[in-house]
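Entry 14. Structure prediction run on the chain below.
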Amino acid sequence: MKDNWFSSHIRQVHVDFHMPEFPYDAINDFDAESFVAEFVRAKVNVVGIFTKCHFGNAFYDNTVGHKHSGLKQDFFGEVLEEAHKHGIKVIAYYSLGTDAYTVEHNPDWYQIDKDGSKRGGKGTVWELPCINSPYREELVIPQLKEITAKYAMDGYLLDIPYLWDHHCFCRYCKSRFVQEYKLELTPELLASNPKLVNGFAKQSAARCMQEIYDVVKSIRPEVLVNCNGAWKMGEPAEINATSDYGLWESQPASGTFLCHSIRSRFVRNLPVPVQVMTVRFTEGWGLMSCKTAEQLKYEFAAIMANGGVINVGDQVLPSGRLQSGVYDIIGEAFSFVEEREHLCIGSSAHKHIALIGNFTENWYFEQGEAATMGAAKMLIEGHHQFDIYFNNDFPDLSDYQVVVLPETVRLNELSAAKIAEFVRNGGLLLAAGEASLTGGETTPNFMMAEVLGVDYLDRTPYPFAYMTQNDELWAGTASIPQLVEEPFLKVKLSTAEALSYVQWPLTVPAPQRAFRHPIPPAGRVSDFPAITANRFGQGTALYVAAPIFKAYWNNNHFWLRRIMNNLLNKYDRSKPFRVEAPTTVEANMMEKDGVRYLHLINFHNGHTGNRKQALYDPIESITPVHDIKVTFHSSGITEVVQQPEGHVLVLRTADKGYEVTVPRLHIHSVLEIR
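Output returned:
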């Protein structure tokens, strides 16, 4: 399904229009022609346009539901017609999980929390109807039938398919739960069996979405259907089955600019195209600020260069007009995209490292799972070529050379066996901490103990410890024991070789054992390895006996990245390329029609101010990087062209390959390798 129009239209804008009825100028200045003209001049080729907002107001000429009282025209219909005149695809947005007007007029349709209170907005927009109430049968389905029959839209976005926090105690949920499980749905059951209660809520969302999907397809089978969050990492298969494309909201509001790259490296191997949705606002949704064109160019480059579909969120003014100044900025950024998109659309990732992690179901404002994020951060900053997979949902590994397992990965026995076979056949494995550790009623040990060449023994009393120096792995770091600010595991060597040992801190600070710093210096060297290497079959397994990826993400201790990169570079002898550039330069290799494309993306943001209020440090200008040496470890290369500049780079022979020097990288350049 990746060959549909959606994957080739990557200059997308989602036009938010959650609009109450009280503003004095509510939708009194809407004009479809001037509205769409902003998209045209900004080079937008897909727009998301509202049919119903969170306040429950319809934005089309309806017979079902409540039309916004300030809207005299057919907002959705007129924008749709005008956009299609200019070849712009239109996605119909419909607020499913929030509808203030409906629940205020039908209070028995509210979701009910475990304390018995209705889930009302309390001065915010979040008035939540339950999808198991008659809300679905009496409003949602009739309204979607009306919209779909009346308008030839290109796609749908159904927003918020889930019950809040995956549980609801309204009378309709209680009745349905008894019918299905012969149990009473109570807060006590949620506490004792959250998997059952949350599973019921997720199944309710999936069934609702399946009904909606079937309704839309019965009227317009060509329309692409999506619900917000579908195809995110860890999303239920039943939800994914109801979405023809994916949507993963992604903003630096989580505190990191790496979110776009990480999400795109996951979604690019899915069977459907996926929007990676950022916003023009500096923070969150609806704050009427605007990022710089420089920042949007960087964000867009990180998405498209890594295989995602660009989508940027905007907000209509209460009057019904768009802000022209915003489309000056978006237009500049989309011109930047237009110059490069032919090098990105339709390409697939070059396979080398498979990062298999447990980064689940997070939203744009959440930090995400630290271990997988930390591993991805290390690999990006080390200029490694890698894809991301979720726990057991990884493909045949024969196309990969390296597998990385963060400490929080959750593998079943079949997956562990597949990874063991991968190593036996010559692959390289890097695992950390509790990766593959299993216990329960049996004696705890690693499912891949034989592969790793170590056995689990015990935990330690120390919340942190040090690693003894290894000259080769410590290159670029101080020649001292290096701190890992997470607890180590005690593991015993079986067939593995120790490359570094755990060195305990002098003590755990207590009132009688105080130090200048709460983390005391290194003390005794233990008998337990910190880093090991084990030959298994034709391959090698590397192991770090601590949650080193989580430690790196949470503390940003650069020495951990340098040690891990030195470890990978020592044993990974088949890297497709080597980039000599700052850690702020990201590299990613894609392929299309027999041609390889090495994307180089340059990042640079401002100084940190008050982190308690500012969610991240914005980008105002990006300083170019000069004279980046790139080595390709392959034969048969005849030409390397820096695109979109069209500069043919001087190609020099190097050990086991060729090298070039990129004279200047501003934000995003692509090396076309022939």
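The mean pLDDT is 96.
Filed with the rest of this week's runs.
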